[in-house]
Description:
Blueprint (H helix, E strand, L loop, with lengths): L1 H20 L2 H24 L11 H37 L3 H43 L8 H16 L1 H6 L6 H14 L2 H8 L25
Helix pairs in contact: 1-4, 2-3, 2-4, 4-5, 4-7
Amino acid sequence: MTIWTLAVVLFVLFGALGYAKGAIRMIFPLIGLVLGVFLAVPLGPVVKALVPLVGLKNPIWSILLPPVIVFFLIALIFIIVGFIVHWKVSLYYKYRTDDYHRLSWERLNKRLGVSIGLIAGSAYTLLVGLVVYILGYLTVQVSAAENESGLVKYLNQARADLHSTGLDKTVAAFDPTPEKYYLASDILGLIYHNRLLAGRLSAYPAFLPLAGIPEHAGDPGSGQSGH
C-alpha cells in the first residue's frame, strides 16, 4: 500500500509540475534522471577520491557515495541545460513571433509538460522503488523485525510492499548493484542472527591479521571494533 500511495503522489506532483514548468524544463531533467541511473555506478570511481576529502574516512562511504554524487551531478547539469533552452525558446516566441503563435506555443508547452510529467512520475516511482529494493535488502537481513523502529522499520515495510505489489521484479531489471552486494548482505544477515558464528569468525585464521590493525582491533568475543 505504501508503494502505491507514493506512486499516486509522484504522478500528481510531477503532472502538476509539468503543467507549471512546461515540456522543455521537464524533458531535460528526465533525460538526466535516466542517464544518471545508468551512469552512476560506472562513473562512480571517477569521483571516489573526493569522498575522503570531505572527512568521510569509513570505507563504506567510498562505496555508497560516489554513485550518488555522479547521479546528482548529471541531474543538475541537465536541469541547468533545460532552463537555458526554455529561456531561449521563450525569448524567441516573445520577441520574434506574434501573440497568436506565442500563446499557441505556451498552451502546447504546458500540455506536453503534463504528459512528460506523468512519464517523469513513472520514472521516479521506479527510482524510489530501486532505492528501496537495494537498501531494503540489506536492512531486512540485519534487523530484528519485532524490535526495529524509525527509518529501518519503514524501509523494511516498503521493501515488503514492493514485493507484495510485484514491483520488485520490475525494478530488479534496472538494478546496477553488483552481485557481491547481495552476497555480502546475506553473509552479514547470517552473522547478525548467529552471534556464535560471529565469535568464531573473529578467530578464523584469515581474519587474525586484522587484529593488529587499529580500525579492526577489539575483543573477538565481544564483537566490538575500533569504530
